[in-house]
Amino acid sequence: MKTKSYGQCTCGNCGQLYQVKGHYICNTCCKEKGVRIPKRLTLCDDYENLVLNPLIVAETVANRPYTGSEWSDALRSSVSIQKTEAKRQALTPNQITKFAELCDRRCHFAYNHKAKWFMRCVRSKSNAGRDELYMWCSHWLAAFCEQAGESL
Q1: Domain with 5 in it
Q2: Do 79 and 34 sit in the same domain of this protein?
Q3: Is the C-alpha dihedral spanning 122, 126, 131, 132 positive or negative?
Q4: Whole-angstrom Cα distance, residue 15 to residue 27?
Q5: Quick one: DSSP state of residue 75?
Q6: Which of 8, 47, 68, 136 could anchor a disulfide with 81, C-beta 3.0 to 4.6 Å?
Q7: Are 130 and 52 a contacting pair, CB within 8 Å?
Q8: Where does the pLDDT of residue 60 fall: very low under 50, low under 70, confident under 90, or very high at 90 and above?
Q9: What confidence category does residue 41 fall into, taking pLDDT thresholds of 50, 70 and 90?
């Protein structure tokens, strides 16, 4: 199968592209040609076309009550959770937008550098990847609220 140098499958009916042995192929071509996709594959989607949208996840996390779910029970303190929740409630819409953009930039950087934690989120076949991204955004929200609380 011939591929164009910029990584587009030649069938023109591409969904998600995979890089297999230096060639770019899509799900459709794999099924039609009987190509076996290796378990460890490289997603070739652009960051903007990912199924997970970190900007939306971060906004969702910032607009729901903080529970400290990213911490283990041994480290979770009800006092610190209440303080973080109070600071979260004091965030302005502009601060929430700024937080979401910071999370998006962090995830974009992680995707470009193929960070293991983010690639696990992106490659997950179940909701586990989404849940992990929610956990990371919740963790970053606690730090952001702490910094924003100092300036409030």
Answers
A1: 1-44
A2: no
A3: negative
A4: 7
A5: T
A6: 68
A7: yes
A8: very high
A9: very low
Tell me the three state secondary structure of residue 51. Answer: coil
Beta-strand runs (E) in 27-78 = 42-43
Q: Which pLDDT score is estimated for 103?
A: 96
Determine how many CB atoms are found less than 10 A away from the CB of residue 111: 20
Question: 99-127, pLDDT tens digit by residue?
Answer: 999 999 999 999 999 899 999 998 888 89
Mean pLDDT confidence for 60-74: 88
pLDDT tens readout for residues 4-21: 333 445 555 555 555 555
Contacts with 108 (C-beta within 8 Å, 6 or more apart), sequence order: 47, 54
Do residues 61 and 9 share a domain?
no
* 18 touches 42 (CB < 8 A): yes
Residues 6+ apart with CB under 8 A from 136: 70, 117, 121
> Could you give the CA distance from residue 59 to residue 56 in angstroms, rounded to a whole number?
5
Kindly state whether residues 95 and 123 are assigned to the same domain.
Answer: yes
Spatial separation of the C-alpha atoms in residues 124 and 88, rounded to whole Å: 29
Encoded tokens for 57: 């996840």
